[in-house]
Amino acid sequence: MPVPGPTPTCWPPCAPRACWRCRPPTTSCACCRRSSLDPKRSTPPFRSSRGPLRVWPGRPPDMTRMPPIRHFTDLAALDRATLRAILDHGAALKARRGDPGDRRLLVGRTLALIFERNSTRTRVSFEVGMRELGGDVLVLTGDALQLSRGETMADTARVLSRYVDAIMLRTDSPEKLDDLARHASVPVINGLTSLSHPCQIMADLMTVEERRGSLDGLVATWVGDGNNVAVSWIKAATHFGFEMRLACPEGFDPPAQVLAWAQAQGAAVTLTRDPEAAVAQADCVITDTWMSMSTSEDERERRARVFAAYQVNQALMDRAKDSALFLHCLPAHRGEEVTSEVIDGPQSVVWDEAENRLHAQKAILAWCLS
């Protein structure tokens, strides 16, 4: 739909002419070829979940010419050029935040956010980001949907695709995400699964580039549980060609198939049990919580013993470069995986990292819905 402004136009642009409501009263619309002298006779272009379709009267839309659906579900499914374009767009959106033109990018589009796991940063950043691009947001929780009463994800995907323009899912189950993407006819975004967290890594890479200027020659070290965030870091390193070191206790390695995939791609990914060796002369040190929301009390005690040697403290950071950055996707358990001295110290960029979730995800939304 058109938006008020000094130079109202269609979105996407409808040839060189203005749209059915914006055009001067004596022009004819390139969409419907009817005179605008009688607004009741002017018909707006049909609108699908992928944007306005320019349709001649009496002619059905050619579905074979529809653009492919752009899912953002896993970094391994995308190429370096696409990820580079998203990062560059995110940086540009951040630099010109509040620009009136950006507030028209997703006018008339609606994003559904489905949360099967609680979230602070994911919910707020997606909701604010979509609104800053001119779109609308619908927030749904698992118990508010028929999913909690036995409806399949496939059926939910088919229904929501008729109502909204994109769907973000945050869930423990990667199988649910795959089902959603397979059966949805609109873009699907991975807000987090137990196996990956691609939106977080895009914000992380954006933060590192802001401080270093480039990812070239980067040496990144992951310390702790080889979880979903570590997996996405491995995939990012494979795409961008930087060195990735992981220090994980035995039994908490990243999935073997992910390591094998990275090695098959020629990535410089190494796994060790020694956090001090892994951190030596690193450009950035990354960690995450040792405990998940579903971890039992007995398991918490066991993990605390296993991971004690993998705490990121100032002594460990001193083994990295003097200019090394500390990253954490948050929430942090201070005194466990990281000390307050580090997370509040001069090498910490966790607050920039959290802010960049907003800007990186705005670029992801623009890419999915462009």
UniProtKB/TrEMBL annotation:
The name this protein goes by in its record: Ornithine carbamoyltransferase
> Pathway, according to UniProt?
Amino-acid biosynthesis; L-arginine biosynthesis; L-arginine from L-ornithine and carbamoyl phosphate: step 1/3
Tell me where the signal peptide lies: none
Q: Give an example GO cellular component term for this record.
A: cytoplasm
For this entry, list what GO says about its biological process: citrulline biosynthetic process; L-arginine biosynthetic process via ornithine
Supply the Gene3D superfamilies for this chain. Aspartate/ornithine carbamoyltransferase
- Superkingdom field: Bacteria
- Which segments constitute the Aspartate/ornithine carbamoyltransferase Asp/Orn-binding domain? 217-368
Residues bound to L-ornithine are: 228, 288, 292-293
**Chief location of this protein?**
cytoplasm
Keywords, in A-Z order: Cytoplasm, Transferase
Q: Which family does it belong to?
A: Belongs to the aspartate/ornithine carbamoyltransferase superfamily. OTCase family.
Its biological purpose is as follows: Reversibly catalyzes the transfer of the carbamoyl group from carbamoyl phosphate (CP) to the N(epsilon) atom of ornithine (ORN) to produce L-citrulline.
Q: Where does carbamoyl phosphate bind?
A: 119-122, 146, 170, 197-200, 329-330, 357
